[in-house]
Amino acid sequence: MLEPINVSLESLNLTTLAPMLIPIVGALLIIVIDTIKGGLDKTLYVVLSMLFILMDLGSLFNASDVFSVSGTMMGAFDVMLIDGLAILSQFIIVGASLLFIPLALTHKRFHEFSYPEFFALFLFMISGFQFMVATDNLILVFVGLETASLALYTIIAMHNRDKSFEAAVKYFTMGALAAGFFSFGSMVFYALTGSVEINQIATVLAANNYVDMGYVLVGTVFLLAAIGFKVSLVPFHTWAPDVYEGSSAAMAGYMSIVPKIAGFIVAMRIFEFLIHSGVVWLEIILYAVVVITMTAANMWALVQTDVKRMLAYSSISHAGFVMAAVMIGTTQSNSALFLYWILFAFTNLGSFSMLWISRQKSLPDYQSSDHSYSKFAGMIQTSPVAATIMTLFMLSLAGVPPFALFWGKLYMIGSAVSAGYTVLALIMALNSAIAGYYYLKLVVYMLMREPIDPNGGDVYSGNATLALKTIIGIAAMGTIFAFVAINPLLEFVTAFVYNSGY
Fold first, then answer.
1. Tens digit of each residue's pLDDT (9 = 90 or more) over 284-332
2. Residue of 324, 326, 263 whose CA lies nearest to 294
């Protein structure tokens, strides 16, 4: 007769699950409330969502305190991994979500926010991304990836415009392909090592001196393709501009930040151990992908006539810029990755939010699309405050000092130089200069062109609710005064990265 298995709660270490379970509980509560009493005002669901996101943030602060004392924590049968990378990335995921969700307090014509299901799906999505970054188990990474992705597909479709359905279908199709690639790559590594835990895979491969290098190449290529889809690296980027265009501008801004940081963390865990183990060809592949992504995306952004698509291609370029940190693989570069993405989160979410509140029900004859450059011509005369704020965000994205992203680019390029990647640092600096052209192009339209329709009024006045003004104000303040907090923020980030062994 088999002896019963006793599992102690201490060995499970359920505190490692707390940050992920909180948004799940919130999502289920929203569904139950809507089932019992439908038709309630969306403000209730916004407040509930913010409450659970704040609770999630509080649990992360508690986890960071425990980590600073006891170091890396394992839990849930050693499937959960709470280290510095997990905590920092979850801070970005939850923080960006906290900035995004108040944008739902806008006019009713953005009707996706009137559905309780939107907020439930949003909380499920947050939890999925948190599971994805807080583990080194490839199965749980896959579960978190698909949980977040399935929620995100539906959220995009809920925007309920012609291009939204098209965007959701494209994202679903590409996402399904990426999921297949990830599962196949994971299967290859499991066949080679008998484990789905990244650290154990690294140990077994190193002990065998990578004798099955051909199979390692196959598995790595499939995993790189899957992660490349999620962070929109060239040539796996094709979905991004169309999906961003079909989504609401605010959701596009959110998608440019949160899913990508989750992808970067998975890439760091998987690829850095291979590079550090001397797998030279992986470093060469990543080098080529990084350079091509930065350069090609900038070239495509230069020829765009729509500001939203320009920002979509620029987000692809930024992803390539940050992926360089994964290839370099030093503590300095990994710290620069987090610093860069925190500053990018403020700037890019602010930029897309400015586009979102300027959305129009019907387009005048001189506009080819909702966010064509002609729409912004002479905006300094028709909407001086909006033009000033948008200029601020464009200068930051271009890396003009002393605005936020300048410091992120400075530390990122500095980490490349310190690690001996001088040519890569020059390519990164050159691409930053190229990107400056298309960001400044919008600034020129806003500040130096005459309005095409001087009687068109302020397109921002109809949607600039208090919640929108607050969020954009926070993003603007973070962009302007980032230089004040750069050193403390960098020390905070570096401490977590160093203590995690990266």
1. 888 999 999 999 999 998 888 888 888 889 989 999 989 999 888 888 8
2. 324
In tens, the pLDDT along 222-239 reads 999 999 988 888 888 888
* Cβ contact 502:140 at 8 Å: no
Pairing of strands 80-82, 73-75: antiparallel
Give the separation between CA 405 and CA 256, rounded to whole angstroms: 15
Q: What is the DSSP string of 363-392?
A: --TT-SSTTBGGGGTTHHHH-HHHHHHHHH
How far is 124 from 25, CA to CA, in rounded Å? 9
Does residue 235 have a cis peptide bond before it, meaning omega lies within 30 degrees of 0? yes
Give the phi and the psi of residue 211 in degrees, each rounded to 5.
-65, -30
Instruction: Dig out the tokens for 271 from the structure.
Output: 């690829």
31 touches 48 (CB < 8 A): no
Which stretches does DSSP call E strand in 296-444?
A: none
Beta-carbon contacts of residue 2 (< 8 Å; ≥ 6 apart): none
Cβ(344)–Cβ(321) under 8 Å? no
Q: Token pair for residue 201?
A: 């895979």
Backbone angles phi, psi at 372, to 5 degrees: -65, 155
Segment 421-464, tens digit of pLDDT: 899 999 999 998 898 888 888 888 888 877 776 555 455 555 56
Query: Which tops the pLDDT comparison, 451 or 19?
Result: 19
* 304 vs 63: CA distance, rounded Å: 44
- CA-to-CA separations, 348 to 256, 312, 412, 465, in angstroms, rounded: 8, 10, 18, 20
Say if residues 357 and 464 touch (Cβ distance below 8 Å).
Answer: yes
Residues 163-206 have pLDDT tens digits of 777 778 888 888 888 889 999 999 988 888 888 888 888 788 77
For residues 129 and 156, which has the higher predicted lDDT (pLDDT)?
129
Domain boundaries, the chain: 14-356+370-499
d(CA 197, CA 84): 18
Cis peptide before 402 (omega within 30 of 0): yes
User: What's the confidence (pLDDT) of residue 399?
Assistant: 84
Residue 241: pLDDT above 60? yes
Which residues lie below 8 Å from residue 176, measured CB to CB, with a gap of 6+?
A: none
> Any alpha helices (H) in 71-115, and if so which ranges?
84-100
Residues 34, 45: Cα–Cα separation, whole Å:
10
The confidence score (pLDDT) of residue 1 equals 46
The residues near 320 (Cβ < 8 Å, ≥ 6 apart) are 233, 234, 289, 290, 291, 292, 293, 294, 297
Rounded to whole angstroms, the Cα distance separating 24 from 144 reads 12
In whole angstroms, give the CA distance from residue 114 to residue 104: 9
